[in-house]
Specification:
- With about 80 residues, the chain is mostly beta strands.
- The protein has strands at about 20, 25-30, 35, 40-45, 50.
- The strands form two sheets. Strands 1-2-5 form a three-stranded antiparallel beta sheet, with no helix packed on it. The chain has a two-stranded antiparallel sheet with strand order 3-4.
- It is globular, with a radius of gyration of 19 Å.
- The mean pLDDT is about 80.
């Protein structure tokens, strides 16, 4: 069950978790965390900060593997030119 907006969970003295959205990158969540995916599977991490994939390109989804850093070639980019001939 999630806590109402602006309030910590029902645990006395619990502090809210900090979540940082990195533009063009992952969502950073102060750990430990338990992630529940849309199919009901859960993934846990006890790391201090957990990088959650926001682009869905990660091979380690739901965790970020920095796949968002790879450049995606656009259709209008020029073809490589080979001057060796």
């Amino acid at each position: 069950m999630s806590a109402p907006c602006g309030r910590a969970a029902d645990t006395p003295g619990a502090e809210p978790r900090r979540v940082t959205v990195v533009p063009g990158g992952p969502v950073l969540v102060e750990g430990p965390v338990e992630l529940v995916l849309e199919d009901g599977t859960t993934h846990t991490s006890d790391r201090f900060v957990v990088a959650v994939c926001a682009c869905r390109r990660s091979k380690r989804y739901p965790f970020c593997d920095t796949s968002h850093r790879r450049r995606v070639r656009s259709d209008d980019s020029p073809e490589p030119h080979d001057d060796s001939s």
